Amino acid sequence: MSAIPPSRTASVAEPRRVSAALRQKSRIAEQENRPDSKASSVRKGSTTTTETRTERRTVDERLIKRTRSPLKPTEANGSNGRKSRDAPERPRRAEEVRQEEASSQAQTTTWSPQATLLPPSSSAPLATRISIPPLSQHAPASVQPPSLAGLDLQRQETALIEDLLFVLMGIEGQYVRFVESYNPLDEKSRYIGPAFKIASGLDPSLRDLASGMLKTATQYAALEVFVETMGREECGTVTHALCAAMRKLLKDYLILIAQLEHQSLTNDGFTLHQMNLHLKPTGHMMTQIYSLAQEVLKENSMLGDLLEDDADQSDEFENILESLREGRNTAIPGKKTCKGGAVLRLIARRLQSSAGDPTASQLLQTLLREASRPYMRMLNEWLHHGNVQDPHSEFLIKEQKSIRREGLQQDYTDEYWEKRYTIRPELVPPHLEGVKERVLLAGKYLNVVRECGGITDKNRDLSNSAEVPHTFSNPRFLENVSHAYAFANRSLMTLLLTTHGLPARLKSLKHYFFLDRSDFFSYFLELSASELRKPAKHVNAAKLQSLLEIVLRQPGSVAAEDPFKEDVKVTMSDTGLTGWLMRVVNCGGGKDEKEISGYEALTLDYAVPFPLSLIISRNTLTRYQLLFRYLLSLRHLEVLLTQSWMEHTKAPAWIYKAKRGTVDSNEIAMARKVESWKRRAWCLRARMLCFVQQLLYFCTSEVIEPNWNGFMGRLSQAEEAERGGKVEAPEEQAKLGAVNKTEKEGVAKRTVDELMQDHVDFLATCLKECMLTNSKLLRINSKVMSTCTLFANYTSSLSRYLASLASPSPDNSTAPAYDPAKLDKLFSILQQYEDHFSRHLKILLDALNYLAATETVVFLGLCARLSMANEGGAGGGPAGPAAYE
Asked: Where does the record place the Gamma tubulin complex component protein N-terminal domain (predicted)?
């Protein structure tokens, strides 16, 4: 193909397609007008050539008539058949000849093949607008050409070359036609291409040469249909670019056919062998393009030989819903779709497998380069502006437009950041496989920056400039991705840390949710105690919000200087902390809890503006609320036990001691028994208070504070690196698998996603080490705290019950008369509290020891602290009753 310069146009191909049948009739007429060499040499005495040709035709027609119509029996005359035939024979034959000529002319007039002009299509503006012509197998016998067996070798070759010039353009010839099984109205048959057959009587050597060229004719016809079908709008811009590249190659192919026709008309020595040699390179090219087109059709399930894959039905369902929301139609014929990045993957895979064929490799590289141009335009728009311009769903980044940032305040699953932009694995070209995460993050970062006011760098409009690579073969392709990622990360990091003050926001969260410097909160609990004692459904949340605002604006309070105090809100949960956590841990619904109090339902909420809501999302804020409710429950339980201690030290029934004198020994024994009961109650209260205080200290000082310092240290490093413009060292970049030195220089040290992950890890670690993620620890710890709460709330009842045992004399001169039955009931009640607390505390310590040995050693310190609360039970011990008198 390259040997003949493409200087001529191939515009004659379409008119020939339209007038194929007319050309066939003209060739028949030309053969009839051509003088017969043998007849002319024998019959030199003829007056004219026309008379000779007419005479021969008459004789031929008579012979045909005689063979087709057998003699009829003569019943009219009784003479023999020979005599009866001789008299009327000539007039009857002349009449039959005239009738046969008339019927032949009628048949010729009836056979009128036509091709019509189809109306234009908006979905496929470049598609062929010529209708499918009639097949030659439907033509009458009168227009059929003479048999090849009656032609000599030279005339056979001439006729075959003339036919091949048409067949190579997908048009039937006189002797080379479609097989009978080919149906041009069947889509699958057209995609595969028509098979051709050569009429019988052809010389074997010519047949072998022609058979090889017929494969090219089949491939050309199939490629024309492929380019027309895949050029529809819904097939995507990458497929359109591939079809455009194929059209250029097919145009060169038609130019070659026109040049071969010129050779056949002007060069008497042009042979079928020479034609075959000229077609060899082009035939190899057509084979490569044809196999690529067939593979694309198979991936689109348009050939009907691929099984439907059910693995991605959920993703396909989401795509259909998204298409319906946006009001677009992205479907193409077939069950599956292969477009965009999938087409590029297919071409790249074939290019890799054809490494040993330089010609095929060069051809596939050209197709890949041209097909990747629209994909690269989408990639550059995403990398440098954060926009997804993908109307046909062929880019590796999928945008869910239905997910908007307005829903961040109700998003408990980080759906905006995780699902707003996602990667389509099947549409990732091999060239982007190693950097697809960077591509995703670069666009996501720029999208956030753009929504917050745009990109301040005036030189970032690079998507259409010459500096940006537009093909995968450009050596700066990976460097472009790396630099775009570094710029996007730096822009968003500056926006978060400097413009919107992320560190100050996080410190504000710590003050409110981790009760750091919580003098204001203690005052708030005192003011709202009467309201919080009510059941949760009867608590007035507006009143609590007013009390919190009063406390936060109190002069001298730590919160008074907080610029974000207006963002703190009071909310009431409808589920207790333990029940909510059990549902989360067990991933299912739990049993409905009993009615909870205002203290158990109280929680705080925090309004976070965009883009800080990406770091402090609703998901992470929920973790803050869980830790706050747990710390609040410990702080409230500590207050209850402290109030119980005050009750034990001030109530007369607890501080009264009988004086020894002239009293009955039985009364003295009863008084000692009461004193022993008091000491046991004091001991139990002290153990519970020790448990709560040690657990609260562990959660705040040994879990939250160290992890908070580590998180803020990493945040400070990111802030310092951003201010100083630090980048990774070359050896560190080598570990990340950087492509070249320039790419290494463009990668930031800390990324926004690493910052987000550090924040999530910090909260997850705090929840785990505070025993809020293990269902067994949750149940045991809940039972211990419930026992402590019941005992603290029962203190006033115990005081009244203790006072009702007996009333002492005003001067305490005589001991009261205690009721033994009531005293035994007091011991029984106290024994139940001691048993429940000791048993559940021991189970908790055993579980912590096991988890300390198998999961985290942090629980060892907690075991050591809580073991102090396990000492000095009802039977005495190192911290027996005497220690608490």
From this structure: 161-497
